[in-house]
Amino acid sequence: MTIFLQSLDYQLWHIIVNGPRMPTRTIEGVVSPKLENEYNDNDFRMLQLNSKAKHVLFCAVGPNEFNRISSCDSAKEMWDLLDVTYEGTNQVKESKISMLVHEYELCIRNLILTKNL
């Protein structure tokens, strides 16, 4: 999926990983969101990329996943939710790795014991 998204538009992948950049303005040192009538072409392009990324993700998932991610506001939220759903949190990933290493070590130990018999 990563390669597919990057092949469509690398900025699309950037929006998914980093989240959309909401258009802002700075007045007297205070940063605030721009009003829609203040958006420039670049602001519209960034917002369009987020919508395009959401569309691609919607089209790529099945009905169950669609229901899970349809309430997300950004493509990043959708991607992160899918990532946790299918890959797990970092703690879950570390636990899986630890379990697989342990199983591997037991398998090697059993092979060595079998060979020595």
Automatic annotation (TrEMBL):
PANTHER family: DUF4219 DOMAIN-CONTAINING PROTEIN-RELATED, TRANSMEMBRANE PROTEIN
Protein's UniProt name: UBN2 domain-containing protein
Species of the source: Cephalotus follicularis (Albany pitcher plant)
